[in-house]
Write a structure and sequence with these properties.
The chain is of the alpha+beta class. It has helices at residues 27-37, 48-55, 92-97, 99-104, 106-113, 118-123, 126-131, 139-145, 163-166, 241-247, 254-267, 278-299, 352-359, 416-423, 433-446, 452-458, 469-482; strands at 20-22, 41-44, 63-66, 76-78, 84-87, 149-154, 157-162, 167-169, 172-173, 180-186, 193-200, 210-219, 222-231, 238-239, 331-337, 340-346, 378-381, 384-387, 400-402. The structure holds flavin-adenine dinucleotide and FE2/S2 (inorganic) cluster (2 copies).
């Protein structure tokens, strides 16, 4: 193995900021680190937000504390009162497809499905989505209409609060320096209720210009009660209490909905930013209110259609020696790359993409944006698509990585997916193709017979600057036939 790694100066190709790194195996160890280092020890869950902040020089923690080795922080269960308990480090992908969530909390499942990229859904978590404090995050409006509560833990004990209190301002929450979020609790759903989530974006793979969640309780043609929440139209995700009170007890009609929509538009406080304008957000909020209320109304009393899927986990709770590194430390990581066992010496801040490209000369995984937005760097980690530009090399310790170079079974014997891409002429310059191929492999691993809509949905985080999307979708359809 050669080591021809040379440091780059360009900001996003490599992560230049250095930090110590810890992988506590228990909550006790995690809280001890938070007590010792406070905000200097930044939690890393999926890392999709945090890694971009580090790359953009907007976060400067002394230490990253990765919480993926703590099993209690993952998964969806019920508490003793029958309420749904989502552990904070549960992935957006798992929440989207969980049967109870699709059935009883469909707005939350839809909010997760509305994320800008499948790879981000797989890596990102609900805890990260709430703790990053973004007013444009997708899960808060959905959680707000269900009156969700968050559970916060420190060595001093546990506290619980409504999510509406937890969210404060852009990038500001009630989380204390030595606290972590352990779970989100959703009260038992009421009878004759239905809910819906709608997100408006510039392109599919983006944060919201505006988003809305509603829940309606219906009896005949009467609205018994109603909850409405919006994202990206105020400094934090908000409930629209005046519109909710206006609708309660009214007979459902277009006129009533239009009046409620006017109230919503008056009560939000949107701003102009890179995604939209104040004027547009106020106008679109009216149409979104009417559409979301209609959608939820029509769902009342109907059985939810469950979309089956295989839940995949990019950072499985496999037994392995936790990685703990101080800022100047280096350590050997052991990983399988394209079937071959490798040993590589890394520092905590090195990225998987750079290790593959610069150390192992596997240049198939491409550098595109470096910020999770283009999918060109997608590789498979234990058969699941991950963005190697946002993945630390230490995360690959003990794991199996597959890059586009590993798809060919032997020289000249291509994988059926590669053959289908070639036959469908699904590339022009080819720069995005390795990322598309690896995402397609991940899709077929999860859903062996995807529909065209499911293909488009799964590939939404992969960008092709030559815009050959129609032929790429055709190639995936052909891949399915070749499996
Ligand atoms: C390309 C791209 C597209 C995106 N698209 C969307 C989108 O469509 N919709 C959307 O809502 N978001 C989107 N995001 C933002 C981000 O991916 C999500 O907010 C995601 O859910 C964050 O989860 P994470 O586990 O990756 O968080 P991390 O990056 O690991 O953490 C985010 C913050 O929360 C803190 N934190 C995480 N977990 C805990 C915990 N349990 N206790 C205390 N603190 C914690 C971390 O310390 C950090 O400050 C996107 C990001 C990128 C890069
Ligand atoms: S380079 Fe990783 S998503 Fe663009
Ligand atoms: S084929 Fe050129 S970027 Fe996709």
């Amino acid at each position: 193995m050669t080591d021809n790694h040379t440091p780059h100066s360009a900001e996003n190709t490599h992560l230049l900021y250095e930090f110590a790194y810890r992988e506590p195996a228990t909550i006790k160890e995690l809280l001890a680190l938070k007590d010792e280092y406070g905000k200097d020890a930044e939690i890393q869950a999926g890392g999709t937000h945090l890694m971009t902040m580090l790359k953009m020089n907007r976060a400067h923690p002394e230490m990253l504390v990765n919480i993926n080795q703590i099993p209690e922080l993952k998964g969806i269960t019920h508490n003793e009162d029958g309420e749904l308990l989502i552990a904070a480090n549960t992935s957006i992908h798992e929440i989207e497809y969980h049967t109870d969530i699709q059935k009883d909390y469909p707005a939350l499942s839809e909010a997760c499905a509305a994320f800008g990229s499948k790879q981000i859904e797989i890596m990102g978590t609900v805890g990260g989505n709430l703790c990053n404090g973004s007013p444009a995050s997708d899960t808060p409006p959905a959680l707000l209409v269900y009156d969700a509560r968050v559970v916060l833990l420190s060595s001093q004990g546990t506290r619980e609060m409504p999510l509406s209190d937890f969210l404060v301002n852009p990038r500001k929450t009630k989380l204390k320096e030595n606290e972590i979020m352990t779970a989100v609790i959703l009260p038992i759903p009421q009878n004759n209720c239905a809910s819906a989530y709608i997100k408006i974006t510039r392109v599919a793979a983006d944060l919201a210009k505006a988003s809305i969640a509603v829940r309606i309780q219906r009896e005949g043609d009467k609205i018994i009660s109603c909850e409405i929440a919006m994202g990206a139209v105020a400094p934090k995700a908000i409930r629209l209490a005046r519109a909710e009170a206006f609708l309660a007890g009214k007979t459902f009609s277009d006129e009533v909905l239009m009046q409620a929509a006017e109230i919503v538009s008056e009560d939000i406080s949107p701003i102009d930013d890179i995604r939209s304008t104040t004027w547009y957000r106020r106008e679109v909020s009216k149409a979104m209110t009417v559409d979301a209320l209609h959608l939820a109304w029509e769902r009342c009393g109907k059985v939810a259609v469950i979309r089956p899927n295989k839940i995949v986990n990019w950072f499985s709770n496999m037994a392995r020696t936790p990685v703990n590194l101080d800022v100047d430390d280096e350590r050997d990581i052991f990983l399988k790359v394209n079937g071959k066992q490798r040993r590589i010496r890394v520092k905590a801040h090195e990225l998987l993409l750079n290790v593959l490209r610069d150390r192992l000369n596997l240049t198939g995984a491409k550098y595109g944006c470096g910020l999770g937005e283009c999918g060109a760097c997608t590789v498979l980690m234990d058969d699941v698509a991950v963005l190697s530009c946002l993945t630390l090399a230490v995360h690959a310790d003990g794991r199996s990585i597959k890059t586009v170079e590993g798809l060919e079974e032997k020289p000249g014997k291509f994988d059926p997916v590669q053959e289908a891409y070639m036959e469908s002429k699904a590339f022009q310059c080819g720069y995005c193709t390795p990322g598309f191929l690896m995402t397609t492999k991940s899709l077929l691993n999860e859903l062996p017979k995807p529909s065209e809509d499911e293909i488009r949905e799964y590939l939404k985080g992969n960008r092709c600057r030559c815009t050959g999307y129609a032929s790429i979708v055709r190639a995936v359809v052909n891949s399915v036939e070749k499996q």
